[in-house]
Every structure is written in structure tokens, then in C-alpha cells.
Amino acid sequence: MIEFALKRFEDNGYVTFGKLMIPRFNFSCLTIELTDGSALRFKQNCCINTGSYPLKSGFYLKYAMYPIFKKKPHGFAKKPSFNLEVTDYTNLPTGDIGLGTSRASDFALSTSTELQEKFPEICREVFTSNEIVVLSVYRSKKFRKTTVETTTVMGNFDFIEEDFDDDEPTELEHDGEP
Known about the structure:
- This protein has an eight-stranded mixed beta sheet. It has a two-stranded antiparallel sheet with strand order 8-9.
- Strand 2 (15-22) and strand 3 (27-34) form a beta hairpin.
- The protein has helices spanning 113-128, 150-154; strands at residues 2-11, 15-22, 27-34, 51-60, 63-69, 82-83, 97-100, 102-105, 108-110, 133-145.
- The longest helix has 16 residues, at 113-128.
- The relative contact order is 0.22.
- By secondary structure, it is mainly beta.
């Protein structure tokens, strides 16, 4: 059996960061997923639950022999996938696992062409071995929940802090005449 181990180490309420390891092939990279949705009955804008998921060989974008889930996890509208294209939480589909090389911000990873070439290459080796392949998802013992300021997520909107003067009447308030 070949194990893909996904160890989650941080959740900030918007995204969950982790590390994907394939020990037999001495491979590891960082991961980004939408926030933990284990308490939700229908999964929307969240990551898959912790546990084991059998994988099989399939097609993803331009890659053959790419790992895909054998079954759709309960509560999800589609099968999640390992995503080499999206490393920012705003475009990451529900359940997908974004792969990257380093942390770019509280909401994104950086990626490299080396990772985008190496991961599919290793997956080709994994699936030509004809062994059972399983994704094991778990939390690290040092898992931490952090918080992010709403202004960091939403951006700095100047109109929120404008000082409106309620004492001056508008044109409509002058004796009912404009």
C-alpha cells in the first residue's frame, strides 16, 4: 500500500494549511484547503474530513495517471482533487487540496514549475506500481487555530470609516421641496 499523508497544522477560519507527504517517494509539499467543515452536514466552502480515502489513477487537466478519489466523500457535490493550478483560497473549489511550495500569505501558497512537474511524475510512478493507494488526512498534534482580522480578508474599504454628519439636512428634507 502506498500512502499519501496529509497532515494539517493550522486553520485560520478561512483556510487550512497542511503538508502532503508521500514517504515511499521522499516527497512533500505544502497544502491549502478551505476551512474545516467537519461539523457541516452538507459540505460547502470547506475541506474534506479527517480519515482515509482510497485513490485511483485518473485524468486531471493535462495529466494522466493523476490521483483522484475513488468515491465522492459524503456531503460533497463533487469529488475533490489535488489542485496544482489554484493556490489561493478565493478560487479553490470545495474539497480540493491546493499544492504549493511555500506560504505566500494567510490565504495563499506559492508554487513552482518544479512542483508542477514533480508531483505528476511521482503519481505516474505510484500508479504504475499497481498497489493500493490511500490518502490519510489527519491533524498534527500541534494543530493550531488562529484568527485573521476581517479587514485583512475584506481589504481596507475607506467608505466604512467615513464620518457622516447626520445634522445637515438633505435636499429632500427641506420642507418637502427639492
